Amino acid sequence: MSYFLNLLMSGLVIGSLYGLIAMGFAIVYRATGMVNFAVGEVMMLTAYISYNLAQVPALGFKGLLLTTLPIAMLLGLLVERIFIRPMLGEPMFSRVMVTIGLAVVIRSSVILIWGVEPKPYPRPLGDEVIRFGELALYPGQIFSMVILGVMCLLMWAFFRHSRVGIAMRATSNNETTALLMGINVKRISGIAWALSSLFAAVAGLSFCLMFALEPEISQMGLRGFPATILGGLDSVVGGAFGGLVIGVVENLAGGYLGRGLKEIAGFVLIVVVLMVKPYGLFGQREIERV
């Protein structure tokens, strides 16, 4: 039983990272209808920026958050303004390819500036093990799960009660109608990209609090994408749930069926679920009337 509980908790921890990344994918898709394949690289870039900021002892963990997250949102706004907005009206394939090219540029730039060697990230939350009965967790692992829950609650309230969130929902349903209703679609797009970078930055910080910092962190973007598909590409909170499910399934498969099956367990789950629910667990079915 202890082995199962530890596998389950480890799956929830890594699933929380997948969930944060999936929320980054989903928020852009919900607002603009496109997939941003640079989420993993933005996560990597903000993690390296936070690494430099963490070298300032007086900053502390709270100061690190209050500094890194606004920088990440500004980065998202710049990406949208410089690379994405000029592509409005172009085929969706072209816009997606811009994000792939941007991902390559960011990854290469990070390696050029910081190198490829792993860097030990400071542990501002400490390294002491916190025990809950038979479970043992590090502060960074607890932070990752807690911050995912906080982000889910904030996003639920954002889409349910804020004017910007309601406008984003309207834009995702029908961009032309939203324009006719006076919604600033370009502003909504900028906010979505800023929030996507925010999720990526939180995922990057959470990763660094548990592991060493290295360029391979960008691969988490592709590993988190299946969680977006599982939860529903247009469901931000659904992506968070999908991340937890993928993380648990991967860990249980690796623990009981063999490490080789851990890498494919999530994809097998997606295939099975999509055969039953093509739009994901929480995705909205598109209805076209002729």
Automatic annotation (TrEMBL):
Query: Pfam families recorded for this chain?
Result: BPD_transp_2 (PF02653)
Give the membrane topology.
Multi-pass membrane protein
Q: Which UniProt keywords apply?
A: Amino-acid transport, Cell membrane, Membrane, Transmembrane, Transmembrane helix, Transport
Q: Where in the cell is it found?
A: Cell membrane
Chief subcellular location equals membrane
Membrane spanning segments where? 6-27, 63-84, 96-116, 136-159, 191-213, 225-252, 264-282
Keyword check for Membrane: yes
- Write out the similarity annotation: Belongs to the binding-protein-dependent transport system permease family. LivHM subfamily.
Give the protein name, as stated in the record.
Branched-chain amino acid ABC transporter permease
Native species = Hydrogenophaga atypica
